[in-house]
Fold this sequence. Notes:
Number of helices: 18
Strand content: under 5%
Number of strands: 0
Helix content: over 70%
Shape: globular
Radius of gyration: 22 Å
Largest sheet: none
Amino acid sequence: MSSTNKALRRKINTLLWLLFAVSLLCVLLWKTNFDIVFIGTRVFGPLTRLMAIMALTLFLTAVIEAKGWSHVVASVSRPLMRLGNLSDWSATAFTTAFLSGIAANTILWNAYKEGKISKREMFLSALLNVGLPSYFLHLPVTFAIIVPLVQQAGVLYMAVTFLAAVIRTAVVILAGRILLKRPSKTTCHVNSLSDSSSKQKSIIGLFKKYLTKRLSSIALYTVPIYMLVVLLRLSGFFEELQHMTAHILQIKAIPVEGISVVVFSIIAEFTAGAAAAGAMLQEGILTIKETVIALVLGNIIATPIRALRHQLPRYLGIYTPATGLSLLLIGQLLRVVSVIAATGIFVVLYPN
């Protein structure tokens, strides 16, 4: 009876989300005056790429599981994972996160649904990927923008954000050591080597299983949520939120002129904030220390807003809406607290 009720609940849930998606598509078409090109490039184009990445990740997961290669991928970060009582699947996701956050989250959700890791470990592993993997994933672009524009202040800013990433990683590892049981050697390689029955499954068979069960579930949530975010953007919701944030901002740690750096970072983009900071630094309006603080402040306030705009559809699509939203909010809170802590260390140690 309970299984019947669960199946019925799933069907109703699927139907409601499909109706929600169709309704949003109708609103988008009306809002854009039936601009099919806009809908294609701004909605279905990005969604197709996102689904393709997830499908590729599921295929690679099937290959890793069928071939028993997860211990090879996990070996790169296994020593760190063992400090946090995390399994090889978490290590695999952590290593993958240096190349793709979407792929890493897909691996974690898939491992959880397959019963290879607990929900608690999935949460901690997802938060762990917000640390060093996220920092190094965005490092090339950030470095190429910030250092030429603000030079020494840019290097110091990169150092502060790196310290924040280290703090995030250390906090999650410590939490894992406290909250998780130490996996046995057999468990640690589990899931790395898989059981004999799992080894006998073909890669294509596993991929079909993942594709029908996982990707369809991911698409069910991702498509309507992505359309909702596009609709909110068209309605000016995010711009209004950014202007409100910039308007109420007051801080005494930097001169009034330095607030424009923060405002540019919030309203426009990080590049605009860095350009404004570089100009003020060259003109002597801001000191190196004030420039770093202004850039960090802009980063702290703007990042959660951009996360809602860009990462929300991915998190709510890969995980369930409740789990994805929890991970996104906790991850952003962890990021903000770690950056504030790292900035505090910088303010104390760096001379005026």
